[in-house]
Amino acid sequence: MKRCVLFILLNIWLFYDFASLSILEPPINPNGTVWALLVAGSYGWDNYRHQADICHAYQILSSSGIPDDNIIVMMYDDIAFHKKNPTPGIIVNYPGGKDVYKGVPKDYTGKVCIGGEVKSKNFFAVLTGRKSEVNNIGSGKVIESGPDDVVFVNFVGHGGLGVLGLPQDDIFVDDLVKSIDSMKAESKYSKLIIYVESSLTGSIFSALFLGTKNGRCITEARSPGVLHSLTTVRIFPDSSKLPSKTTVLEFMAHMSSANSKTESGHSAAL
Prior knowledge:
Structural class: alpha/beta
Order of helices and strands: EEHEHEEEEHEHEEH
């Protein structure tokens, strides 16, 4: 069965630019619109970088004209006002960077109920537009896309073989494939882009691409590759007491998204 889906992962070595991805271009059909689901799959101060990257993604999409009604953010939201944050209420995604937290919608967080709202059940409900399943949960926003629309999913967090981690449970690739198939059958997109930064992403996309002819995958973690923090840089280099670290790969990811061209000078259109 063909799944007419475009899967994208960050390729740090080629310096592809997040801001110039074709999700920010008008949909193929002028009647279409862009929807985005942004997910930080972790919690805790040591995972600062994941929420920082998702907040940065929001700022890029918002500044490109995508309205908040079409951007859904799932993150634990325990970093901005964490007791170890030297700048309370501010999140940056590179040393000395601008605040990327301001204005970010808190659609589904980890603070409201036991286990929080950032869980797989809610993720799949939001992705597939099952609004009744998130009644009285968070903002209740879901992706209400149609056949002419572009749907963009950005997950940043930890991963394993065939799985992406969330604070309380996991997103399994089999369930993701089923959800994507149902979206295709129900004509809920013209283009679907999934952009993942985690370890072992190659294992996720190997399953998604099985039998798929219409797809493209650019990954920083091949199957069964692991994205380890072998070398790190501090988000706050002037504070030796802060445990916050981010991998050099993630630091380079920011640097690639800060530019509007690839290293070779060409736009990274998809």
